[in-house]
Design a protein that fits this description.
Structural class: alpha+beta
Strand content: 25-35%
CATH architecture of the largest domain: Sandwich
Number of helices: 9
CATH superfamily of the largest domain: tricorn interacting facor f3 domain
Number of strands: 22
Number of domains: 2
Largest sheet: 8 strands, mixed
């Protein structure tokens, strides 16, 4: 079977693509029982007679192909469906009825996916957890649209990807339907369930902080400036790529927050107003541009997500009137450059290896790579480069090589050797010298942005 990503052997299949997922989920929180009908609109990319879906833990009981019963065989991690002889481009629908008690999917970085809370649910599937709760083609490069319909006890509030298009209480149940009309990788699909209320914020797109009623998320918390963050990043990176943004705060503590498309999930322990928490609020938001809208084709290029989100923390620090930890963007770069110099220099950013893909060196070295590009191009060209990167690749998948070629488009005519700079940061394990940007120019850039945002939001 053709494996799309060497970091995820056995996941995904390039012989077909999925255009749309329609997920009907009936979930019992108290017993962790999921009954599901998942309908996939599939298009073969080559001639085939069988479609192999990723599915872990749930047991299939019926499969329909174009409305007719089909033969299938389920193994530990795969559901093989006989679809008849199909030609490339010939669309078909596969409807899978399955059920069980979902569990996180184990892997190199621990279990990922379906996580029961004390009273609710949080799904965070990066990088291999999606098959634990719905049959899919678990390949980040195979993006599709989604409709997620969930039936749950009426006291619960449900959040999923995209726009809430229907909610009603009927027959003693709450019924929630969300639609994500922008292409989305399977690992970014999510459902969040809890005893929540909604705090709506004023911004250029709807912004919500969904949280337990007893948990503070407003003034004096790490989420106080969530709407302002959306506006700042929209100015720096280009328009926010989805119809709305939600931060979901569970009533449990969590080890780390995690992004999904159109939303991010946090534990209540991330609410106190520390810089460590605030930077993570900014980090997860930045993934909406870098990781969700523009997605690395393979995990070897994970720095295109994490390095960009980490650099966004530093940009937010620079935007704040006193800076995160009191540091401007150049001071942040210097601090983390020195920390990297003291760590083993045996990681290649453009291909760190599966065990090290979430190593902190990927995050910080990736951010410093962007800082080096900024130092080379200057602010005007650098931010134009970022904005065109996000708009030209919106909804698509990208590689490190594509990013390098994109950056070179913005090299001044005097011919600064940006290609060599990028090669040193991306391909060599040794840490290059600290890049230095014009701090005063950075302040002027952010000051003009702050003035425009303040006028829109009525900020003082």
């Amino acid at each position: 079977m053709p494996t799309p990503d060497p970091y995820l052997p056995g996941h995904g299949d390039t012989r077909y693509r999925v255009r749309h997922y329609d997920l009907h989920l009936d979930y019992k929180v108290t017993t962790n029982r999921l009954d599901e009908v998942a309908t996939l609109t599939v298009v073969p990319s080559q001639e085939l007679s069988r479609v192999e879906l990723d599915l872990v833990g749930l047991k299939a009981s019926k499969v329909l192909v174009d409305g007719k019963k089909a033969r299938y065989r389920q193994r530990e991690r795969k559901l093989a469906v006989e679809v008849g002889q199909r030609q490339p481009g010939e669309e078909l629908q596969i409807a899978v009825t399955c059920a069980g008690k979902p569990r996180p999917v184990p892997g190199v970085h621990g279990a990922a996916g379906w996580e029961e809370l004390t009273d609710g649910l949080a799904v965070g599937s990066q990088p291999y957890g999606a098959p634990g709760w719905f049959p899919c083609n678990d390949d980040a490069a195979d993006k599709a649209t989604y409709r997620i319909h969930l039936v749950v006890a009426p006291s619960y509030h449900v959040v999923a990807n995209g726009t809430l298009v229907d909610h009603e209480v009927r027959g003693g149940t709450g019924r929630w339907t969300y639609e994500m009309d922008r292409p989305m990788s399977p690992y970014l699909a999510t459902v969040q369930i809890g005893q929540y209320v909604v705090d709506r914020r004023r911004a250029s797109v709807p912004v919500e902080v969904v949280h337990p009623p007893q948990t503070r998320v407003g003034r004096g918390t790490a989420f106080e400036r969530q709407a302002e963050m959306v506006e700042v990043f929209s100015e720096l990176f280009g328009p926010y790529p989805f119809a709305e943004y939600r931060a979901v705060v569970s009533d449990d503590d969590m080890e780390i927050p995690l992004e999904a498309q159109g939303l991010s999930s946090f534990g209540r322990n991330f609410c106190p107003p520390t810089w460590e928490n605030e930077r993570l609020v900014a980090h997860e938001l930045a993934h909406q541009w870098f990781g969700n809208s523009v997605t690395a084709e393979q995990l070897a290029d994970i720095w295109l997500h994490e390095g960009f989100a980490c650099y966004s923390e530093w940009l937010w620090s620079d935007h704040r009137s006193n800076g995160g930890d009191g540091l401007d963007v150049q001071q942040q770069a210097a601090k983390h450059h020195e920390e990297l110099r003291r760590k083993p220099q045996d990681l290649v950013l453009a291909d760190p290896g599966m065990p090290d893909m979430f190593d902190d060196r990927v995050y910080k070295r990736g951010a410093l790579t962007l800082h080096a590009v900024r130092a080379s191009l200057g602010d005007e060209r650098f931010f134009e480069m970022l904005r065109t990167w996000t708009t030209e690749n919106a909804g698509g998948v990208v590689t490190t090589d594509q990013f390098v070629q994109h950056c070179l488009r913005f090299v001044p005519e005097d011919g600064f050797e940006l290609a060599g700079v990028l090669d040193a940061w991306l391909r060599s394990p040794e840490i290059p010298a600290l890049p230095v940007v014009d701090v005063e120019g950075s302040r002027n850039t952010l000051k003009s942005i702050a003035e425009r945002i303040g006028a829109r939001l009525g900020l003082g």
